[in-house]
Amino acid sequence: MQFLNPAAFYLLGFVPIVVVLHFLKLRRYTHRVPSIMLWLSTDEDRRANIPFQRLRNLLLPLLQVLFLLLVTLSVARPALRRPGFMPGRAILIIDNSASMLATEVGQTRLALAKQAALDHIEQVSAEGGMMLMLTNAAAIQEAFTTDTAKLQRAIKNIPKSEAPRNLQPVFDAATHYAESPQDEVFFFSDNFDNLPDISLPVHKIGVGGAAENVGIVHFNVEVVAGKYEVLVGVRNFTDAPRELDVQLAVEGEPFDVKTVSIPPGKTKSILFSGDPIGLEGRVMSAHLQVKDNFVVDNSASALLSGVSPLRILLVSDNQKSLLPALLRTYGKHVQLHQVVPADYHGTGNAHIAIFDSGTPAGREAFGGATEVASGTHLIFVNPGSNLPFVPEDARVVEEVTAPVRVIKTDETHPLMVDVSLQGLQVIKSTHRALPLLGHSLVETEKGSLIWIGEKSGSHFVVFEFDAFNFDVSRPESHTLALTIPDGPLFFYHCLAWFEARSAVLQPVVFQDGQTRHAFRTGEHVRIASIAEDTTLQVQKPDKKMVPVHNSIFTDTDQVGVYTLYADNRPLERFTVNLLDANVSALSHSVTGQDTDGTALVTEGGLQPMTQEVWRWFALMAFLLLLLEWWFYHRSDL
């Protein structure tokens, strides 16, 4: 209850006056007497006129004081706040992403959002009930209900997440669960930029204000030229220069430290380098020695992985092929095994299998190319019509004997980075209608010359010409391997692309320059090269064990080190970091400010109703006045 005219409480100052008047009241009585002898009773009257004596009857002063209280309350205009009413159903969406962990006024933005949601369900009532959803959760936090207690418990139990928010799925789900145009969405967040466009009305309830932060936005760990290199990118998101220490740790133990000064709004790179002996396979992490409003991005970690062997199977009897030389120069970690087509009996444990049809016998080898182990990636050189993994209509090829020249390349694909094959001329090639699973990388006027595809977890690259066969008798023929430097560079890109996809732990979406076994919060991890009957579990940084379904791990909502278990045995470790400059900027879309310094704005929300109830107090005061009048005129009072 609230009072719209609290100044009326000054009327309570009359209460002591009423009480004093009762103490001072003269109590005289009229009597008929037969004799003046009874005048002796005047002595009693004299004593009765003495002020401040004990009250003989408390009922009348109590009724009068109570009457005055009711009149005062009536003049103060008491009012009750009743919830705003909406005819449909309400869908509450609370942002529990990483930026909501920023601390302001001693509380996180998530805590402020929870309190705002608790206040909301007290101020607004929905005829069809309310449902609670989160931005960083696959499931509904609480289904539609009119039970306020259940909603309150669900709000209080909202988990935190250190992953960037993903709004599209939750807003799509909200649209799916809506039953009528009267349903409405209430979104509690610190940022309302780039909200998905949906058909339902969206009310924005903002929390959070300006926050200061310095965070790690880039982190890379690798071995280069016999030395470990740890590159840390630190950005200053404040308006003032910041000087801080960046500490390098190995398995949590301090190892090195550097001091850096960062101008406002700028990013500074810090490089740690040294001897990697004894550090391979261990977790190297960077920590910012700084106090700010956001601690999630103050650390980042990755494993210093050694170079794993790359097993390559080459099926070829072509003595003129440049493939063996290119494969050996790719790196010392290459384990090359070459067989002639007649001895090919499957890819075995090879990471990459290459089928070179530079000779008629080589082309026959493609008949057994379907015997490919799961996870093995393939390179086909001039396969002709014997190409597996494609529909029958895509195996029909057209022999192109006239010279063709490259006219178009897909420069946006990772395999074509820094590669220019424009102008490459090919004397003899083949042309086919690409299947739906194919994607063209290099095209001539006749069609696709080099294309890629994927089938049953295996990626493959198809060269529709003899790309690596150097024929001395025909110097006019241009070989891809001799197109320096772009030809070998493109082939090395193919090997690196396949090598990344041969690791046990892989990102679902590969990113250039990504450290091996290092992922970002919210990123899905693909687990490859594991037997189908193996039970997989992942231990998160908080020591919680999470089962893995369908070889995809999605619960990367914490920053730190994860451990993959296969049949209860530790198999691999990997790390998860935030590394998101957009989140670390701690943007906020609110403009108002509450009295405690915390911004709080409701845009388009239902406001609670205020109902005045002074009339009830006035009616009670009138009834009390009648009661007091009746008691006063009774003969015994």
Describe the 3D structure.
- It contains 11 helices and 39 strands.
- With 637 residues, the protein is α+β, with helices and mostly antiparallel strands.
- Strands 20-19-21-22-29-28-27-24-25 form a 9-stranded mixed β-sheet, covered by helices on one side.
- Strand 33 (536-539) and strand 34 (545-547) form a beta hairpin.
- The protein starts with a strand and ends in a 5-residue tail after the last helix.
- The model is unreliable at 591-607 (pLDDT under 50).
Search tags:
637 residues, alpha+beta, 9-stranded mixed sheet, 6-stranded mixed sheet
Give the fraction of residues assigned to helices: 10-25%
Q: Round the mean pLDDT to the nearest integer and report it.
A: 82
Q: Cα distance, first to last residue?
A: 38 Å
Counting H and I runs of at least 4 residues, what is the number of helices? 11
Number of strands: 39
Low-pLDDT parts are 591-607
Q: Look at the helices and sheets and give the structural class.
A: alpha+beta
Q: Strand order of the main beta sheet, please? A: 20-19-21-22-29-28-27-24-25
Radius of gyration: 41 Å
Morphology call: elongated
Largest sheet: 9 strands, mixed
Percent strand equals 25-35%
